[in-house]
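Researcher: Last one for today. Full complex below.
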Amino acid sequence: MKLVVAVLKPFKLDDVKEVLKNLGVQGMTLTEAQGFGRQRGHTEVYRGAEYEVDFVPKIRIEVLVDDSQTDEVVDAIISTAATGKIGDGKVWVIPVETVVRVRTGERGADAL
Amino acid sequence: MLAAVTTIPYPSWLNTGDNTWQLTSATFVGLMSLPALAVLYGGLVQRKWVINTMLMIFSGFSAVLVVWMLWGYNLGFGPAADLFGAQGTGFFANMWGHFHPIVTHFGEQNQAVSGANTLIPFHFPTATLAYFQFVFAAITPLLFCGSILGRMKFKAWIIFVPLWTTFVYTIDAKLLWGGGFFAAKGAVDYSGGYVIHLSAGISGFVAAAIIGPRLLRDRRHGVPNNLLLVAVGAGILWLGWNGFNGGDPYYAGIDAASAVLNTNVATAVGLLTWMLMDWWFTKQKKPTFLGAINGMICGLVGITPSAGWVDGYGAILVGLICSAVVWVAWNYLSKLRPFSKVDDALGVIYTHGIAGFLGGLLVGLLADPGMIQYGVSGKNYTAIGNGEGFAVDGYFYGGGMHQLWEQFLAAVWIICWSAFGTAVLLYIVKFLCRGLREPDEVLEIGDLAIHDEEVYPQETFAERVSAMSSGGE
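Model: Here's the assembly. Have a good evening.
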């Protein structure tokens, strides 16, 4: 099992969610995040004083997938979230030791 | 030793009670724009649009006041311009006032005179009347701002508002309030159900159609960001309406008092009606706060054309009918063309347009000739007492269909002129500003892209890079 983590532009959420649903992904976790990569931040101006804000609003999506589905899910997220402009985000994959469904106690792939 | 002199610091024509109430009610109405509409609309939009919304309201209010002082007031309420050589009661004779500022000492301090059908001279100076009329002129474009939130170029808005006030508002005001054609024919509008609310509803709808919809994402995710501030705005709006309808008799007398009471009871009934209809007739079967606020606004708008001319029964009926009909329109008419095709962000066409239209017609049915407005005369003048009063006879009070017909004609004018004027002015502004919309990439970000400000900035993320130019800190 793998944990796919994606940090993306917020307005891409709807499209990514749809694509993952269509792939049969059973669930996902979403966090509003702030971050920066090579994309520059922005300036905010309050009462004449300029503030540099390096962090820009992002969404962080986490999806647990079976090994066999990992590439498919990563590719789907990338192709859906790409705009070609700097700041599109990143996707990374982490191996997962085990997964337990709290309600039933099922373990491993059964718990996905 | 000095002789005992009794001097008063104002001329004999001035009445302190009238002047005080007029300035107070004007301030109440001003509060309906700042801050009520700013926080009501600001609370209803998504977090990323709050700054833009509030600045549209505050800057629009300011722009209208400058226009009003320099030419707006006299275009709407000054002496007839006699356009195209028309004289007397012809349509063009009294369609517009003369183009003249009120910024001189005489312009502000002389006794107020209006083209309206005033029987007794006003008991306060022009400055009072001009400010009172200004807060009405200002709130009208700010109301229809609610239709076009979340997409309009800020530059286009700030150019459009003065144009709209000049060419749409002042003409409607003159024709219905300034002694113009429809006033002379006998149409009445107590405080602006037509001139303000119907006009705002239509203009907002037309503007939303021309400017185009919000981003699809913004429409799908258009949830409010702060219902507490919506409550603050809505509450100030309701109580501010005591000035809106209570100030329009121009005298701090019994008609002002009854207009205030009627306004409040119609509003209460409107609020309860919507809440109960949500409770009984929606799929969720739940009473909702935002629904109740919609009903409240329907009651306020609906009673506006008739506040001092209906009795308490009439006011209750107005609140009931306007809220119920707009509820049905909001839930069902909105699924039909053209309503389903136009992105009227906050639904101004329903709660202001339809409620104002209905309220104006209801004057023709429910006006009670026993409800007297003192100090004015009119086409439907009914001699009361010594002949100093004015009352309107509705159909159900033995007045025939005449008043309803006049109300209908005036409504048709307001609808056509507001739609036409808004469309023409927007196309001019579109040309001047090279478009009416912000580009999509700006719309995706909202406030930060347009103003470099966000409504809840987080200090954790912000690092100061330049001091204030004044070096004050």
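The CA atoms of residues 101 and 111 of chain A lie 5 Å apart. Helices of chain A lie at 13-22, 70-81.
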